[in-house]
Each structure stands twice: as C-alpha cells, then as structure tokens.
Amino acid sequence: MRTLFASDLDRTLIYSANALFLDTEDAAAPAMVVAEVYEGKPLSFMTRAAEELLVTAAAECVFMPVTTRTVAQYQRIRLPGPAPEYAVTTNGGVLLHHGVPDADWQQKVRSLVAGGCAPLAEVSAYLARPEFAAWTLKLRTAEDLFAYAVVDRAALPGEFLLELEAWCAERGWTVSLQGRKLYCVPVPVTKQDAVAEVARRTGSDRIVAAGDSLLDRPMLEAADVAFRPAHGELDDAGWVDSHLQVTETRGVLAGEEILRRVLDLVRA
Question: Cα–Cα distance between 103 and 101 in angstroms, integer?
C-alpha cells in the first residue's frame, strides 16, 4: 500500500517558542533543532527525535507538507532529509513540484475562485475598515488569493468573528483565527483538493493527514486516517471523528507523537 502523508506545518510539525507548551523543568526539556530562521533569528523548532522520525517517515511513504503559508514563507523552513517532491502552500492555492509552482493547478484554482467568490479586493477593503483598526495590527494578502490580518486578540470583540464569518460566507469565503492571525480564504482554495490531486499523481491509495486548525479540518475529514494535536482550533472546538486520532501530548511533543503514530501505521 502506497501512503501519502499530508501534514500541516505550524503547530503540527514545527512550533514557535510561544507554542512549545513545555510543562517540564528546563533540564528535562527535549533536545530541539531549529526548523526556521527569520531575519537572522530562530523562529520555529521541532524536537530532535521528531526530526529523525520525519526523515524515516519520508523514506517509507510519500511525505508532503501542506501549509497556509505563502511560497516565500514556506521556503524559509528547513525540514530534515531530501526536499519533498510535492508541497502545498497558500492553503492549497499553490502546488509545488520540485519547488516550482504547478501552472495548471494554479489556473484551475483561480478559475474556480473567479467564478464563485467575491474579489480579494472587496474582502481586503472590508478588513481595512477604520472601525476595525483597534485590533488589526497588520493586513496582508497571500499570492493574490486570500487575505490575512495580524490581530490583537485581547482587543478583538467577541461578536466580530461571527459577523465576519457571516459576511464572508455570503461572498464565498471562509474565516479562520489561528493564534494572532485571522485568515479570510475563498471556499475553493482548499488543502484537501490539492492533497487529492497529489494522491492521484503519486498513485497513493491511502491518505494520512495531520493538522491543528479549522482550515485543516476538511483535509482531515477527507483522509483515510487523520491526526490532530491536543491543542489548537480543532481541539478548542472539541472536534472528533471515527478515523481521527488525537495526541496525548500537546505542543512540540505532539508533533513528535504524530510522527511516531504515522510510522506505526505505515509499518502495520
């Protein structure tokens, strides 16, 4: 059986210092390695054991990173072992093959967005409204496909998210709040469709997926076996399913646990 292991990165396999969730004495903390450097400083980490497990997993199945990051943000990450043949960035809007965006895939996604969703400019303009300035620290777009804002969660009104979700839904867009980042993404820009395409191309007959956020949920639902850590949006929502396994640990140790479980599954 050929297995495709499609995994989210941030807070699933790699972790910022604020997301490590290490509840041990410093001397008992696991050995860690730097997975990302930004502006000359280490930004993301994984345990040394997770690094070794990922090298082994990538040798025993088709490993594919799947991220909401842009191509440039993904390229900052240094995962162990050979570069994956395929990677999905921009929440499914970009499919990389040997590091190069697949033009056919991009055209397909953009055609679907143009045919059924409000323009990016309309959503960006809405997020930039002056009354939202009190909690919107930065506003960005990704690959001309979706918008995201860095927000002050403490200042974010409780009703704002529900109102934004309703406004976006009427225009064919979805909303996800991950840490301090608020994403507005067109409905056709999905991780699961890109994963299905790569499964077809690689002849994989089993899809194993891992992720922690609401944007990951459709990908996990479509997988044959799914994993999520005991933290993040999906954990906050209490989401469970018959084919879903939840880690016993959280934070950076959950990333290591997911890789152990995936290897056990591939070898079974």
Answer: 6
Question: Cα–Cα distance between 135 and 150 in angstroms, integer?
Answer: 9
Contacts of 72 (CB under 8 A, 6+ apart): none
Look at residue 120 and give its three-state secondary structure. Answer: helix
Contact 126, 181 (CB under 8 A): no
* CA 179 to chain centroid: 12
pTM of this structure: 0.93
| Token digits of residue 222 | 């479509």
Helix (H, G, I), strand (E, B) or coil at 161: helix
How far, CA to CA in Å, does 136 sit from each of 118, 122, 152, 154, 156?
22, 17, 7, 11, 9
pLDDT digits (tens, 9 = 90+) for 170-217: 999 999 888 889 999 999 999 999 999 999 999 999 999 999 998 999
Residue 147: which of 171, 155, 156 has the closest Cα? 171
Q: Which two tokens stand for residue 39?
A: 């502006």
- What is the rounded CA–CA span in Å between residue 149 and residue 133? 11
Identify the DSSP state of 241: -
CA nearest neighbour of 176 among 147, 215, 218, 219: 215
Structure tokens at 221: 């639902």
Q: Phi and psi (nearest 5°) for 144?
A: 55, 30
Binning the chain into helix, strand and coil, the percentages to the nearest 5 are: 40, 30, 30
User: At residue 170, what is the residue type?
Assistant: E
